[in-house]
Amino acid sequence: MQKFDAIIIGSGQGGTPLAGKLAAKGWKTAIIEQRYVGGTCINDGCTPTKAMIACAEVANTVLHSNRWGVHCVGFNVDMPFVVGRKNNIVEEFRNGINTRLDETPNLTLFMGTAVFTGPKSIKVMGEELGEEHKLTAEYIFINTGTTPYIPPIKGIDKVPYLTSTTILDQVVVPKELIILGGSYVALELGQLYLRLGSSVIILEAASQLLSKEDPDVSVVIRNMLEQEGMQIHTNASATEVSKTDNSIAVTATIEGKPQTLQGTHLLVATGRKPQTAALELHKTNVLTNDKGFIQVNEKLETSAPGIYALGDVNGGPAFTHISYNDHLLVYKNLFESANLSTKDRQLPYCMFTDPQLGRIGLSEQAALKKGLPFKVAKLPMNKVARAVETGHTTGFIKALVHEYDNTILGAAIIGKEGGELVSVLQMAMLGGITATQVRDMIFAHPLYAESLNNLFMSLDQ
């Protein structure tokens, strides 16, 4: 039995930086990784998808270059190059993490599957047959993340469906891609492959795309994707899938009526489930909910003292930056008596469609539920000088402002670099800068950020 001060299970965006910080404090630290270091973000999520989305955006610009007076006679998508470029970027990032882990004093990386054998003891089954390590520590941090959830649709186990992980390695553009799901991952990947040459159909069970967003956000996103040629069905539940010689058939109830759709490829993007089953948590006092997510308090500690859960596995917001913030919260509480909690921390996020959806703070629906008095400032992108000049006028900027003190409660921005622009409002919210102050602030002309002057001027009209 090897004794450590801390054991970290999973090398995602919470586990890896935490391991480095604990080791730097002199803690003898073990980090265990089953597959690749870097977690979902580096290997299957943010890094590979955004690398490929960049290629798709170039293809779309070339396709519509006439809008800017540049005339191109046809083009071809070199899919092996697109996938290869993505792989090279992922490998570069992954190798960088491996190097940092290997070179960090007091830190040992174990490659293998972690299984609890007791409340504070873990067995690591290594990559080689029969390889096994037994570890123990007073502090254990679980950062095992999530994996694609496959719904129990009749016939799903008999068709070669794709997930958000496996589709990224397709070196041939799917001719006809049916996507189950209509949320952030589904729409990013749908637009990506649409622009690379696929015919794309979205089937979303809810009444609108992006069911957690305000209706006006959903409508604009849907319209922009349909204008690009995507077929979108809401109130659409798949009931059966089957394979024929050259296609996959999906039977679905769409707006109450049964329909059968045909496609060459099927992507299942209906959410994710926690990677907790292999941990054998029943040998600890760590509790999970009915979906397998680890239950934690506001300090990210589980029901077992000294055991924490960071990132997607705890059922919190499934974003890389939240996982990273989790490690800061835990570290500062342990070493700086910071008394930080997850309660009321900021939750920014961005959907990397083109244009992007950037979000921070409360939506209109959430503000209404809280009973807050608020007013809405809204500015269409076709009234933003920078957007007009660059030819990217789809979308709008919307902010919620408190009725009485003019504090900014939240924002949604659909537009070119919407994620970058919403970050300006995020910092204003953190710093207590009011809508009136932003209205009168000097921004360099003609940035997208300058439009925030006009956004909040709209409240005076």
Please tell me about this protein's structure:
This protein has 461 residues and is of the alpha/beta class. Helices cover 30% and strands 26% of the residues. The strands form 5 sheets. A 5-stranded mixed β-barrel has the order 1-2-3-4-5. It has a 5-stranded antiparallel β-sheet with strand order 16-17-20-19-18, with helices on both faces. A hairpin with a 5-residue loop joins strand 4 and strand 5. The mean pLDDT is 97.
Question: What would a concise description of this structure say?
Answer:
The protein has 461 residues and is α/β, with parallel strands linked by helices.
Major sheet strand order: 1-2-3-4-5
Question: How much of the polypeptide forms β-strand, as a percent range?
Answer: 25-35%
Shape: globular
How many extended strands?
A: 20
The chain-level structural class is alpha/beta
The overall pLDDT average reads 97
Helix content: 25-40%
